[in-house]
Amino acid sequence: MLNSKAPALLLTVILSGHCAPGMAEAMPNHDPELRVALLGAVSTAESFPDRFDAEVWLMDMQSRLDGMKWIKLKNQRERLEFLRLVHHEASRAGISPEMVLAVIQVESAFDRFAVSRVGARGYMQIMPFWKNEIGRSDDNLMHTPTNLRYGCTILRHYLDKENGNWIRALARYNGSLGRTVYPEKVMSAWEKYWFVNY
């Protein structure tokens, strides 16, 4: 399982949509660079340098998920596959897999089928309009690899746009640029549950 290639995925964009005031800036016609980033995000490279690193990271993160009795990922095999996909997509995008886990915790509480009040879907709360914007209207935003590909690509785009400033990038991701409530929640989850020092 650790050596299997992740299937090539189709892209999309993520927007949590929890904050209506930021929705306008997230619309496709307001950020053509993001559309380009999404369209260029195809990659199938493995993210772990070797099997030992994979086992260490996967077992560490698996034990952390075990401590969260409220999450819906109950099956160990399902959890390991989910973690492998998170690591793959985060690494492909050049961002911390642990930060992606913190975003997922805050966005959807690890609920694959989460739908926000404004229609954002899945683990990373992707807005459906992006499927049409990039010509992928048949994409299933509840499909884990697709959802993670979209989310990690968008998060990377915003991190680049903000010159590595996680607070501003996370606020953009949430559609709440100028406010710090959402970034503080994500950073707190990262520090409390997902931070690694190895």
Q: What is the count of DSSP helices, taking H or I runs of 4+ residues?
A: 9
Distance between the termini: 23 Å
- The secondary structure category is mainly alpha
Low-confidence stretches: 1-29, 40-45
Gyration radius, to the nearest Å? 16 Å
Q: Into which percent range does the helicity of residues fall?
A: 40-55%
Average pLDDT reading: 80
Strand content: under 5%
Outline the biggest β-sheet.
Answer: none
What is the element string, with H for helices and E for strands? HHHHHHHHH
- Give the number of DSSP strands: 0
Based on Cα principal axes, name the global outline: globular
Q: How are the SSEs ordered, and which strands pair?
A:
Elements: H1 23-26, H2 32-39, H3 51-66, H4 76-93, H5 97-108, H6 129-133, H7 144-161, H8 166-174, H9 181-194
Characterization of the model:
- The structure is a single chain.
- The protein is mainly α.
- It has nine helices and no strands.
- The protein has helices at 23-26, 32-39, 51-66, 76-93, 97-108, 129-133, 144-161, 166-174, 181-194.
- Helix 4 (76-93) crosses helix 5 (97-108).
- It is globular and about 40 Å long.
